[in-house]
Amino acid sequence: MDKHIVFLGLGSNLGNRHENIQKAIEHLKDKIIIEKISSIIETQPYGFVDQPKFLNCVLKGTTMLLPFELLEFVLEIENKMGRKRIFKWGPRNIDIDILFYDDCVINTENLKIPHPELHKRLFVLEPLCEIEKDFVHPVLKKSVYELYTQLISSRKE
Asked: Can you give the residue ranges of the 7,8-dihydro-6-hydroxymethylpterin-pyrophosphokinase domain (predicted)?
């Protein structure tokens, strides 16, 4: 079986945020060999802003899971950790997003890879740049660093 390179975004804004991220990373190690983990950064909420600040990080790893198996695995971890999906962009004790899976492009109702919003989110691009700035977005054909600098400059205008 082949190993696949994956990038996952982790976030938490409820409970002990740092501990939640560490627990999620430990669970992920069951089926992912983690190669790099970014620094954990504190960020403002995205979308629905009337909620506590988030802690976010990004990790790079390899897995033998196929894309839909990976989705099932991360949802299982979120459920195990007590994630409640009350409304989109609402508060959560843990959020695990699949950002990239090799250079695959998947667009189904339940799974979209690359993550469709990642190029608009500093809280994803900043930690992603820290661990793999030269990775090229398979749809936008720009490196993570290019997407990051583009987003920064668009916010200054």
From this structure: 88-99
